[in-house]
């Protein structure tokens, strides 16, 4: 996430040498065999299919374009 990336960059800049390997709570909470058994289905991602995600991003980008156009028109 952006927050973790910012923290990582701050540690590198302030303390001259960030960790070579980052740890996450999820990786620390489960044994390695859980990740080996996991089956990744590219058509079903966290309960949403790719087409649903595509439609969501399409609406989101359309909304951003409308907001930008409204700013330019009324600013």
Automatic annotation (TrEMBL):
Instruction: Give any Pfam family that matches.
Output: TEX33
Q: What is this protein called?
A: TEX33 protein
Task: Name the species this protein comes from.
Answer: Chloropsis hardwickii
